[in-house]
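re the bet — no i am not wrong, look at it urself. input seq straight from the record:
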Amino acid sequence: MRLFAATIFLGAFLLFQVQPLIGKYILPWFGGGPGVWTTCLLFFQTVLLGGYAYSHFISTRLRLKHQADLHLAILLVSLAWLPIVPAESWKPSPETEPVTRILLLLFASIGLPYLALSATGPLLQRWFHLAHPGRSPYRLYSLSNAGSLLALVSYPFVIEPLLSRHTQVLIWSAGLVAFVVVCGACAWRIRRVNLEAGAGAARLDLPNPAPKSGTLAQLMWLVLPAVASVLLLATTNKLCLDVAVVPFLWVAPLGLYLLSFVLCFDHPRWYSRQIFSALFAVGCGVVCYFLTQRSVHLRIQIAGYSVTLFAACMVCHGELYRLRPAPARLTRFYLFIGAGGALGSLLVAVVAPLVLSDYFELQIGLVLLVYLIGVVSLVYHSRDLAIGFATGALAAVLTVPALRASGLTANDWLFSFGYQLRAFYAQYWREIFFGLVLVVVCLRRGWRIGTGEWRRGMSAFPLVMTVLLGSIFTVQMVDDRRNLVESVRNFYGTLKVREYNKIDPVSHFRLLSHGETTHGLQFINPPRRNLPTTYYGATSGVGRTLDFFPGTRRIGLVGLGAGTLATYGRPGDTLRFYDINPAVVSMAQRRFDYLSHTAATVEIVVGDARLQLEDEIRRGNPLLFDVLALDAFSSDAVPVHLLTREAMAIYLQHLRPEGVVAVHVSNRYLNLKPVVEGLARDFGLNIVAISDYPSSEKWWLYASDWLLLTKNQSFLSADEIRDAAEPTVQQPSAMEWTDDYASLWRIMR
């Protein structure tokens, strides 16, 4: 037992330790967006399915001796993949299709080791059941997920801060060698069981009798893990879009997803239908609130989305465990689970970007799970599920107003909560009244109070709530389409162009947004068309910097947006824009005309700015910019790899000795100043901060924060810079980001 348990635990640990490790290697190559991690999860889930299929095939078609020999041979061959460092040749070119490239890269780097590790868990559980027919192997599945969970939790808090990526690779490689050794010991033991048992061996190879699993049950084996996988990836996308794609925000949702497997498959006592269905219903209300508000504190959002995901996964995996077959059909059961996980990943990573104009996967996943709760309640006569969900739906009426009052002191919270509750009731009294009527009707039809007799009427409540929840999300989607001119979704996110004030020729303008962040605004009226707007006014940090340099200038701009900074171009200037998203370039050229009306020469480079600048250095072509403006950090997801020490070293090779690096650090959720201060300290640069707060009359100008890094003393002493600069910068707060480690937790607002 101990040998099997240790081997399964180690394999699961290696299986999930390699996920953030390989993700950190390739993330900067593909722009640092959430699509990179989503595609990685698609690969992991798909190969996991392949491992489950392989283990099911050989466990049902081969004798134990041949199973052990074949699997040990595959493990030995997988060692040829070591070390698992992606080759530099896999770095993408601008015309590369990123999803296919990432999948091929991952297969070439970790394909066979990951497949072998994926297959070992269910295969060893099968061997354990054959060697010990009287003991359930399902607790070993729980142990496997515990090992996976430990790998994920330890990575951002222990592995990543203490070890470089190179050291991590060496340790993981040594772990794989050790795993092959202990797995070989398990294979030897199971071969001895087969050889020594004689006639008993044939008996062990026969499947144990199991109750028939109906078509509906097997469908649930597929659908429940698929919905859990959809919610996992959708929640991860949401968190990463709002903050950054970093290991902490990768592993937190995945860790909760695995924790639900650990608890549900360890013992039935951990899953309560009433508690978790109620918690999930509350979570649905909370998510509805978050999706319509922009002012909620980031930590509250992380907590709300995480709790909702955990409750949803507990419901999915708890009901999945209740529908488990006898151990004789274990590998078939795991095959369905793997297929469901892969299906969910495929829907989010591949299908959704093709058929959905925005990130609606989270809403769709929640509606699907509410529907499944209703189906399970109806088919399997689960009173606990239906009543729990109804209770949670009513509790959400109190939870949402509580969130509105969050962030206040204890003395003010109670008064504010009362005010918010009254306002909430005043705004949604019709919906609340309708919900109460539904609860009463369903209770009356489904449960005879006093006798406790259960009928199916109460199970209708989750099904009715599916319609209501779907209606809410539909209204949100319809509202999102107002004033919309064009919407494009691709690997890098969703871009939308909207027009406002069409009836007013003076104020008529067009706006480009990425998620919830404005990327540009341009007036349609010709006299105001070339007016700099949003974060780029004449009094902003970048506006003052560009106006300082006389004569012709060479300016590098990381982040195109609508091309607003082209308004500062003069005859003879060269403006070189870098943007990884080809859709941004298309939008800027077709829907805005900043680029076509500038007096400067415009060069547009499609691709990750860091990779392109690095490649230009490699070719011996430093561009010698007078100003290099980094404007990629106000978006919904911060590309961390553009603010590391290694990235700054590349930037400075392209900068004239008297040049300036201007970093735009306006961000709703993150205080990036300490990071940029750390870079200035490491490279011996002077740094000043310019915060611009335009008057309300100039509504087209936004408040902005720019940090200017330079060794040019004449620039720093110029009146337009000195008068606007903040008097001091708190250097003790400076922190360092590297390609190996970047902490977001310390800089969250």
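see?? The mean pLDDT is 84. told u. also The first strand starts at residue 447 and ends at 448. so pay up
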